[in-house]
Amino acid sequence: MVEKSMTGYRGIAGSILDTFRVGIWSDVVIESSKGRFSGLILPRSETADDKHVVLKLASGYNIGVAAEAITKITEHGRREAHYKIPEKQFPVDDRKPNVTLLGTGGTIASRLDYRTGAVIPAFSPGELYGSVPELADICNLRTEKLYGVFSENMGPEQYIRLAERVGEEIRAGVDGIVIGHGTDTMHHTAAILTFMIQNPPVPIVMVGSQRSSDRPSSDAAINLINAVKAAAEGDIAEVLVCMFGPTSDEYCLLHRGTRVRKMHSSYRSTFRTIGDIPVAMVDPDGIRDLRDDYRRRRDDRDVTINTAFEEKVTILYYYPNMQPDIVDAIVDNGYRGIVIAGTGLGHINKPLYGAIKRATDKGVHIYMTVQTLWGYVQMYVYETGREIMELGVVPAANMLPEVAYVKLCWALGQTGDRDEVRHIMLTPISDETTDREPYNGYLIFQGAIPEVQEFLRSIKR
Amino acid sequence: MVEKSMTGYRGIAGSILDTFRVGIWSDVVIESSKGRFSGLILPRSETADDKHVVLKLASGYNIGVAAEAITKITEHGRREAHYKIPEKQFPVDDRKPNVTLLGTGGTIASRLDYRTGAVIPAFSPGELYGSVPELADICNLRTEKLYGVFSENMGPEQYIRLAERVGEEIRAGVDGIVIGHGTDTMHHTAAILTFMIQNPPVPIVMVGSQRSSDRPSSDAAINLINAVKAAAEGDIAEVLVCMFGPTSDEYCLLHRGTRVRKMHSSYRSTFRTIGDIPVAMVDPDGIRDLRDDYRRRRDDRDVTINTAFEEKVTILYYYPNMQPDIVDAIVDNGYRGIVIAGTGLGHINKPLYGAIKRATDKGVHIYMTVQTLWGYVQMYVYETGREIMELGVVPAANMLPEVAYVKLCWALGQTGDRDEVRHIMLTPISDETTDREPYNGYLIFQGAIPEVQEFLRSIKR
Is the ipTM value over 0.95, yes or no? Predict the structure, then answer.
């Protein structure tokens, strides 16, 4: 490392560091017109702008401070970040199950890139073993990076490749699959995989982390260990999301791919099963079933891969005073499917009726879901619902809007026939609709903790 | 009542009733190719179609059974429904506070319309007193029906009239205001009223019911009693939503108008404060504060009414693989404002960047919110967020997407100046953005029950 290195800094940002005689790895307090910031100056990539100084805060977040706003920088020391993970040979044990970890770009373990200051995912079995040695107690791990995209950039190209690779791995005899994925759209990918990969004989477990492993409160290791455990040893042969549990730091929940949603932008316990209870709890000691209606692991290698996908589908998220031009524009742009997220039991306002009628007359397939997220579409209760059904809108029971969206993409990828699409949409494949929503599936999952349920029932204010 | 009356039935539906010698008020079991239904045949309006027989089920729901699918009807008796509410003179007591109930079309108490079979809101003070006599213990009640629309049809016309009438009532000296409203979009109306009615000296309490009072488990009376109590006696001079509490049948919660959302399509405890805790609990014995940072009741009559509203604003609810044509269509249709509900910390995919840039270049005002509902937009954390801000998208902290939508309508109704709009949007007026979200404001509100919080902390699995 170079003394007072300015790696990546130039222009106004470079000048300001020079003025105050600080450089990368300086532990500083920056005074600026935007506020006061304490942290470690990180290196920047050569292609970064010259207008910001990037600090790693104590919270683990990186922020960019506008150089022109800086009035003073005080150095309190220097500490080079050490995020390089010791790479070790992942031990092989023929008695242990074989798990394949497919990477899509989400961060699980990570290390700091010294050149750019970026946090780089650690991904080889050796790196993962060096970082999370517990993995070798569970399985033989093989890793494969399919691509590296932020999860908001996931789309059909990635879904299809992922489904096909999962199919190949299953046929090749793997005992379980883990998919590393960014958390933003993990639930969308989980849902489409439940339709594209049908009847898998082994667990397919998606995992990510809300806080990367360079942060003190990272959930990366616990999530990964539990996901690998569920894939290697679990009996639940479904597409699952394995993420941090809500009431304690000590376990993860396994959520069904079609009934899970990201519900907090930053908390670690962000994923919640909606309108149902999760399938199981998992911690390093074992997997505890919360229900017994799941598809069991099998010895055969039979799996059906169907990667159909029509891209011209959209979600119409209703709000009061929505104007018909929004619907008309969707139709005029050639969209073939619309999932409405309506209010209440599945409602939209009367001024939209004409545009909706025009859409269904033109052959657009329209399904109704509820933006309350919890509960069912029930369009027979009010006149509004009955009128909207008469326009050709089909109620989609308790399918989450995002799940109805990916399922409609998948259905329209297979057929344009109205009745066939309707049959596909309304026939449950992977619990995307359920006969009932249990009472304890609303808002918080308390079912994992019978004592809390008991307690809530018992107290009187 | 006519023996075996067929009121409202004709054509195929009339024939089928005739064939099986049943009529309105017959208690029947209908066998049909769509299933088997038990209930009471209700009268229909003269303008209703001739293709359905309408049954009131034991659950209280009305359903229409397609006449052509009916194979058999068996009558088990007849029972005329009695929903007529005894109308009594509402007692006046000069020592009690004066409350005005403004009706918008939501059902609070209700009675059956004998002619049409429809459930008609009971609304006059006399009807309400006959139905819910407890109201007279609390206040002198005056009622005024502003209009009768389903809440999904609420829009600026109704918001403006409502805000103006509230202003007039306040200036006329009323001690509190209750607004009856359908539940579907109650939270949208509550939010816009917090911007249109600023600094009110008295409580403005919105109320509705999830189950109308002709159903056994109706929440209509408890919600109304508690809302009137909060308006008459409460010290919280804000726009509030008063609805059924989540853990017991015995109280309602008072939610801030900007931090509340309908979260279940059918449960009575559907309204939840998001990313915060409610303001208070209320039951017939009193109002129990859950926080003390609210605006207090005052004796003055100073209130600012600002009914600005720009209609060309939309919500863009992001989903993976969203295409730029959706954004282009919004811009080409002359929309002036877009609220994005992004994934994670406030993200959209790269293929949209060009269309977003084009939109902001054309002067469209774009604000980012999170579709996780809980948590903050944080666009400085990832490169994606920083890039999206460079396109001109403004992060809206922890404003709910629906709240950001009505606030942007309101802001753009006042000015088109970029900086002024931004100033209005980012300056909190009614807690639409807050400095922090308390831990117990996530998913379930446990804060009302300290014992549960304690218990959750104490248990180890």
Answer: no
